[in-house]
Specification:
Helix content is about 80%, strand content about 0%. By secondary structure, the chain is mainly alpha-helical. The chain has one domain. Helix 4 packs across helix 6. InterPro entries: Prepilin_IV_endopep_pep (IPR000045). GO terms for molecular function: aspartic-type endopeptidase activity. This is Prepilin type IV endopeptidase peptidase domain-containing protein. It holds the Pfam family Peptidase_A24.
Amino acid sequence: MLEQIGLFCFYGITALEDFRTKQIRLIEIAVFGIIGILIDVMLRPYSLLSIIGGVLVGVVLYVFSIVTNEKIGKADALIVMVSGLYLGFMNILVLLWISSVFAAIGGGLFLLTIDRESTGDFDLPFMPFMLAGYMVLMFINQTGGI
């Protein structure tokens, strides 16, 4: 339960920051990463293989961020790495899927409400959708899981 509250706070802080400034400070990611490692060492909520898999999902996103010239932000990828420490492989995949669906819906609604010629390219902050996705994942896990 403690790690759920911590992760909720992490997503809340970074979502607010991402929405307001479209940037996320690395110190927040580092602090929650260290806390995640301590939780894994002390509580062992997931197997080592699941934790490594969860972190590797973030590594793949980080490489994708580099290859696509940050179409996915590097900070978002680092947050997914840290989330893998807390959630393990399967939960981080489900979280990314739910968050991506929310982002697609949000982006579609945004495109429907703006003048496309005046905006050109726009950056959609991902962390608010990750926060919403995490709330759905917590609900799913509390009601019986996947």
